[in-house]
Amino acid sequence: MSENVLAPDEMNLDAAAHAARLSDERPADVVELLNQHAPTFAAKVLEHFSPERAVDVLDQSGLDNAPEIIEALPRDRAVSLLTGMSGDRAADILRQLEKSKSTDLLAQFDAETRTTLQRLLAYPEGSAGSIMTTEFVSVPSTWTIAEVLHHIRMVERTRETVYSIYVLDPLKRTLLHAVPLRRLLSGDPHAKILSVAPARRRPITVAPLADRMDAARLISKYDLLAVPVVDGAGRVLGIVTVDDVIDAIVQESTEDVQKFGGVAALDEPYLRIGFLQMIQKRAGWLCVLFLSEMLTASAMQNFEAELQKAIVLTLFIPLIMSSGGNSGSQATSLLIRALALRELSLRDWWRVALREVPTGVALGAILGVIGIVRIAVWQSIGLYNYGQHWVLLAVTVAAALVGIVTFGSLAGSMLPFILQRLGFDPASASAPFVATLVDVTGLVIYFEVAALILTGTLL
Amino acid sequence: MSENVLAPDEMNLDAAAHAARLSDERPADVVELLNQHAPTFAAKVLEHFSPERAVDVLDQSGLDNAPEIIEALPRDRAVSLLTGMSGDRAADILRQLEKSKSTDLLAQFDAETRTTLQRLLAYPEGSAGSIMTTEFVSVPSTWTIAEVLHHIRMVERTRETVYSIYVLDPLKRTLLHAVPLRRLLSGDPHAKILSVAPARRRPITVAPLADRMDAARLISKYDLLAVPVVDGAGRVLGIVTVDDVIDAIVQESTEDVQKFGGVAALDEPYLRIGFLQMIQKRAGWLCVLFLSEMLTASAMQNFEAELQKAIVLTLFIPLIMSSGGNSGSQATSLLIRALALRELSLRDWWRVALREVPTGVALGAILGVIGIVRIAVWQSIGLYNYGQHWVLLAVTVAAALVGIVTFGSLAGSMLPFILQRLGFDPASASAPFVATLVDVTGLVIYFEVAALILTGTLL
Known about the structure:
The structure is a homodimer of 459-residue chains. With 459 residues, chain A is mainly alpha-helical. Chain A folds into 3 domains: 8-122, MgtE N-terminal fold (Alpha Horseshoe); 137-249, Roll (CBS-domain); 272-454, Tetracycline Repressor, domain 2 (Orthogonal Bundle). The first copy, chain A, is built from 19 helices and 5 strands. Chain A has helices spanning 8-21, 27-34, 39-47, 51-58, 66-72, 75-84, 87-96, 99-106, 111-121, 145-155, 181-185, 212-221, 242-260, 275-302, 304-309, 317-340, 349-380, 390-421, 431-454, and strands at residues 137-140, 164-168, 175-180, 226-230, 236-241. In chain A, helix 14 runs parallel beside helix 19 and helix 18 (390-421) packs antiparallel against helix 19. The radius of gyration of chain A is 31 Å and the shape is elongated. The N and C termini of chain A lie far apart (63 Å). At the A-B interface, helix 10, helix 11, helix 12, helix 13 and helix 14 of A face helix 10, helix 11, helix 12, helix 13 and helix 14 of B.
């Protein structure tokens, strides 16, 4: 973000110069440039644009500081721009303002816009209703194709998309069909619109309170440009368009990766998050993991006698524990995506368990062989002396690896199922979470295996 | 996958029954059902469909076993269906067949289809060219709007989208403008197509060898329905449509999560991967990590004298090491996404470093305080006796935590930059990779801090 150390007059001149230079750019490119400036400066630039152009820029979902820019604008200007914007974007901005500010702005709107925005604001964040737009084309089923095309010509400028036309029951105003515009073009202009509607199929719809990712899945599965949001009575409340869905998919993927890394999802780009907020987003999980990991200290206290007798056992603790965590986070990452993409459902847990156990045994055995080779080589070329019972020690390490990697794979693959079963997002099963879970058990497995194999010799 | 233990005749009857039952379903729903059956059975069902319907089904990107289904069909049928399919899908299927099979099939096509497919097959996987379709609408700039609309009516059925019209130079056939269909509707039919083209702006295009995610970014940024793929001379080779891009984004996100979990990206759903293939995808990274983690054993061998003197130090090894790994994987997950979304570029590395060091110190200090409290409480209520120097031990643990969490945050945040700088995908910086990197250094930090604070007392 560039510093603006200009006096107000200079800033105004500078903003006018910027606005002039940006006059031919596409809205998305203007946004890219405005994102590099403070919101107050961006607001000044917008004031130098025509209202239509300012609305086009504010309508871009890529604009980072839209709420701050709206706040920095004179109230009248802010209200007229928000009125011109698409409903979903305007509601999104109002949602991010302080309650008192958004209430104050809402009071200034004309009655129709206010009602629309309040209805959109009522839908919870992340719902299909919260990302829908109310600017769509709907026509009664009694119209002819020519009438529909004429209507589209009239309203085209104010609609987010005209490529899907929603055909309603003329009396009940419920949704009968969704007709793609391309079908209209090749139809007979004097025929009724229903003549080009798909025969017996009911249109694909989504409920307003459904998760926005459900809307995304429908659009992706059926290759749609928009999906209508329909209430219980079958009336169209709005539509979710494909570009909203792309934004939602990208945002969810980001959250998934961040959660998997053990961070609470950030709402803003990395460099824009304040220092304290960053600490807050990370300290929570880090402390929970730290407190759980303290169980490893307790576990080791229990095995102190063994440690005293065979200090050589401690050398392999980090190696063995990390292998369990690594195999666990592999399994978790596979299962999180398989569940997110609906390749698997809850009731498939046992198939997964039946796959992960042999997989874990095989992977553990591979690592076990490497471990044995390493100890044997170090011992025989004299790099380190593991003592007279080095063969038994190597067997202990290998056996523990098989047990721990198997446990890691199983625990890592079951955790997302357990979280989903408990009503949490399976993506909350972060790599550090799995590693911590496996670490404590891993230590216990290691010492139990050691006791079994080494009692009478080293222990 | 359901077993098909039916005799050939029964299977045929069963397939006919399935085909009849599916006659009214949408192609995407047919695909969902076919995915639950063996490819041989799915091929039988397709043979009972009309050619148009079979093509619609094969055109769905959700169909899991399309290459196997094509192989199971009689060759004539396979060739005619592939010819009817959209170019990008047909090429995608041929790409997945064995070389000999695809060459054999290619020889059967008519010359035009063969040339198109061969051209598509020549683009490397993951490129914009490999996911483009050649079925788009292009018109010379000399045409009127009425002529263009008439043309669209003629070709509508065979074009993947008609909502973007590509206006070409009539002589050089280079791309002049991309005009959205909606603009045509409201224009004067007798005016030239160029009258509704955006004035001075050059169209957004992508090169055939660009990454498919570059096409995705353009479509998402400019809210397009398709982006034209243009060669060096400015001629349109094909278009990448928004539904191809959604598939690409979802697939890349899956690969990112899997890579972050330390697995080589799977090409198929979890339950479809064979056992050996699964081992192969996971064993590689697991072995590399295991070999690197062996350095922890070497590090501990170096500190064996200290361990002998103060066995109590070992109790905190897993706790301290895991905290470093956890803070590292947090930082990595944040940076991977910030780089993938282009919020940051390579030259921002020092800003990130300047943020991560104080963040790491603060997070380490928080954990350090918890560590001190834990040791003090256990000591004072008699849960465990850490010896007479327990205060110094607590200070050692806290100081080591500050050092290790700081190092973890810094290493975890720099690793994606380093990988990108070296030409690798920053998403290859998996959580286990970071944890392993931090583990070895963490051990050294811990023992160095211990030597500094405890020499003369415990050591």
